[in-house]
Specification:
It contains six helices and no strands. The protein is mainly alpha-helical. It is elongated, with a radius of gyration of 16 Å. The two termini are about 35 Å apart.
């Protein structure tokens, strides 16, 4: 089994991959269908990342970080805005006059979210969790990302507060599964 880093290393690696996908989209000529393909890859990456954070990172922040409820709520609000932009982008062809505008808005939203996590949330979590706990959390994040687009519903609880934590991620996963199924036709 592949071993990775602690939760911060794992999620920071995701952040850099997401940045790279945005850069690759921008390198393609306007209207080129490769932009759409890269946007689909970006969607999958964002979904996997978001679901993992919602399942494991934010509950840990709520539990261990002073003021963690407020921090986690703010990050969940960020995810909701990203989810809406992904929904708006979904099904739009690269030649659509709104495609590039939506990608740009998505990039700004994601960049702000990443800055908040890396500059505020991650250091706070690192202060209160042991290196062993951070490593275990990294493993849970990796596992959640692998499972996210394949089987989201069996692990999605129906009771509060977990339903509120996992609900947005499940919606994203549903759309990615539909997107992936659509590309197979």
């Amino acid at each position: 089994m592949e071993q990775g880093g602690n939760v911060i290393a794992e999620l920071t690696t995701d952040h850099r991959k997401i940045d790279s996908l945005f850069e690759q989209i921008e390198l393609q000529p306007v209207g080129d269908q490769r932009r759409r393909q890269l946007a689909d890859e970006l969607t999958v990456e964002l979904v996997q990342h978001s679901v993992a954070e919602e399942q494991y990172l934010y509950p840990a922040v709520r539990r261990f970080v002073d003021g963690g409820d407020d921090l986690a709520d703010k990050e969940m609000e960020d995810h909701a805005r990203v989810e809406q932009l992904l929904k708006d982008l979904e099904g739009r062809d690269a030649e659509d006059d709104q495609f590039d505008h939506l990608v740009a808005k998505l990039r700004l939203e994601v960049a702000e979210h990443v800055r908040d996590e890396e500059n505020q949330l991650f250091p706070l979590l690192a202060e209160v969790c042991t290196p062993e706990a951070m490593q275990r959390l990294g493993g849970k994040i990796r596992d959640a990302k692998k499972a996210a687009p394949i089987q989201p519903h069996p692990s999605a609880p129906a009771t509060a507060p977990a339903d509120k934590i996992l609900g947005p991620g499940v919606g994203l996963v549903d759309r990615v599964r539909d997107l992936m199924a659509g590309r197979k036709h």
